[in-house]
Amino acid sequence: MEFFENIGKIRYEGKGATTPFAFRFYNPDEVIAGKTMREQLRFAMSYWHTMCAEGTDMFGTGTIAKTYGATDPMESAKNKAHAAFELMNKLDIDYFCFHDRDIAPEGDTLRESNARLDVIADLLGELMAKHGKKVLWGTANCFGNKRYMHGAGTAPNADVFAFAAAQIKKAIEITVKLGGEGYVFWGGREGYETLLNTDMAREQQNMAYLMRMAVDYARSIGFQGDFYIEPKPKEPTKHQYDFDAATVLAFLRKYGLDKDFKLNIEANHATLAGHTFQHELRVAADNGVFGSIDANQGDPALGWDTDQFPTNVYDTALCMYEVLRAGGFTHGGLNFDAKTRRGSNSPEDIFLSYIAGMDAYALGLRVADKMMRDGRLNDFVKARYASYESGIGKKIADGTATMAELEAYALAMGDVSTNQSGRQEYLEHVLNELMFFG
Ligand code: XUL
Ligand code: CO
Fold first, then answer.
1. Active-site residue 331, yes or no?
2. Which SS3 state, helix, strand or coil, does residue 389 take?
3. How do residues 156-186 score in pLDDT, each as one tens digit?
């Protein structure tokens, strides 16, 4: 059974493409910066937005049906799995990411939910083997059900904590069984609304313990991939504990989890935190925890997580510049945690959105590669800090200068005689040149 019968395989047609159902910039087998584009970009489909989300918002019901021709929830889940592989095949996407509840509907009891998961995981395993697709990462949805209204790992109720642990254990087992390369913790409702009812220290300590147990359990059953925390500052709670990359780093270090976790940086979460996407990626890379990326974009005029498909090439170029600087992905990749707008409600829109996002990242990779090879940006930064390569600067860099020595140096100087321009506008212009010439 075909679910998207009007749409054929999307291929690279380059500049001469005459149909919107073609890649203009993503040429999977072309080598850029030493690897094929397919290997550099490691695109993944998000099961939740793509296969499940129907375009609902708090003002209205869905605009696009995602039942895949079935009324029974398990039949629908099976059809959904088949549809997912058709979509990945047609879009030439190698990976997918999922929450437990995206792939199989929750049952009345945990036992029933787990049994349903087993059925669908077996089917996914068969389809993966048949079509050569892989799991980039799995995760547990510990935020949708009403039992998690006060959080999961940070719930004030120990029974909720226990339920969440059991749910995560199963999600890890499924992820491992499917050969997943990563496992994500996004703290869905791990945060608070008011400190008048919240013991923040206890909640964070409990969360760290849950993560410790999860890591140890996963390793004990043979998981060799990466664990990620996905920072987000707010939504659904007012104050999410995993606010941004720096906050997550402090948490990981406090609880001795920093060797076990990397970060999954999401573009729209970065901007919600008041940062640029590039900033969050740099913080992760500079601290040795760059892992994976949720590729989407927000709307600068809106203050929430709009999860739009990424089309802004400045952002994708600066993102891929960070990825290349970090040496590329290892287990991570670019997961399109993105959904079509509520008004883009046809199956064609899903394909056109992925094409737009994949082409935007392909362009980003092409520009980033030019930025690296051109070298002007890197050389400029290097020259800007040249004073730390010799003399007093080298002593500072080596950590051998003393306060008294620096005082003597400053007194002898009288005042700083030169301070070089930062040339911001020129560098932005260089970026434009690299983007739009050749
Ligand atoms: C929510 C979000 C999640 C995570 C996985 O904002 O980004 O979909 O990526 O739970
Ligand atoms: Co995300």
1. no
2. coil
3. 999 999 999 999 999 999 999 999 999 999 9
CA distances in angstroms from 283 to 275, 304, 305, 427, listed in the order given: 11, 22, 21, 21
CB count within 10 Å of CB 76 equals: 17
The pick from 230, 305, 334 for probing ligand 1's pocket by mutation, whose C-beta has the most ligand atoms within 8 angstroms, reads 230
Give 336 Cα–ligand 2 centroid separation in angstroms.
8
* Residue 385 Cα distances to 80, 227, 377, 388, 410, angstroms: 54, 35, 13, 6, 18
Q: How many CB atoms lie within 10 A of CB 223?
A: 21
Residue pair 93/334 in contact by the 8 Å Cβ criterion:
no
The length of the chain, given as a count of residues: 438
Q: How far apart are the first and last CA of the chain?
A: 44
Average pLDDT, the chain: 98
d(CA 1, CA 415): 78
Decide if 50 contacts 84 (C-beta within 8 A).
Answer: yes
**Whether residue 143 has its Cβ less than 6 Å from ligand 1:** no
Strand partners, 185: 229
Check the CA dihedral 214-215-218-223 and report its sign: positive
- Round to whole Å and give the CA distance between 227 and 356: 29
Q: Where are the alpha helices (DSSP H) in 92-109?
A: 100-103
Q: Which ligand is nearest to the CA of 185?
A: 1
Say what the pTM is.
0.98
| DSSP run (H or E) holding 271 | helix 267-272
Q: Cα(271) to centroid of ligand 2, in Å? A: 13
Residue 230 Cβ < 6 Å to ligand 1 = yes
Among candidate residues 267, 254, 431, the one with its CA nearest the CA of residue 361: 267
What gap in Å lies between CA 280 and CA 244, rounded to an integer? 7
Q: Which two tokens stand for residue 258?
A: 């920093």
What region does 322 belong to: left with phi over 0, alpha with psi -120 to 50, or beta? Answer: alpha
